[in-house]
Amino acid sequence: MALTGQTLNDHYAAISTGREYTALILKSTAPAESLFISEITVFRMLDQLRPTATGLDAVPAWFLRLGAPVFAAPIAELFNQSLVAGVVPHQWKAAIITPVPKIATKRF
Fold this sequence. Notes:
Strand content: under 5%
Distance between the termini: 81 Å
Helix content: 40-55%
Number of helices: 4
Radius of gyration: 24 Å
Largest sheet: none
């Protein structure tokens, strides 16, 4: 018998004698199987990228669209490992933001 969180919860619930005892709401420590990102989902996302400016990695959108059949599996694996570990790599949190003024520039 494997020792799981549910096993421990069941054990302590069975031996608890307090009248105020109520079962705790279980926290999700790992996503359900349905929350995993599939290879085909990543492929479709890459395949539908619009041409935009490159990000910090300097990889243009056309290259990601072209390489979608090759890149989809490893990217899906990276996403799923991040979900299971509950950690987002700090590189994914970086961005260069260039403000675009809303007013037209005056020409002299």
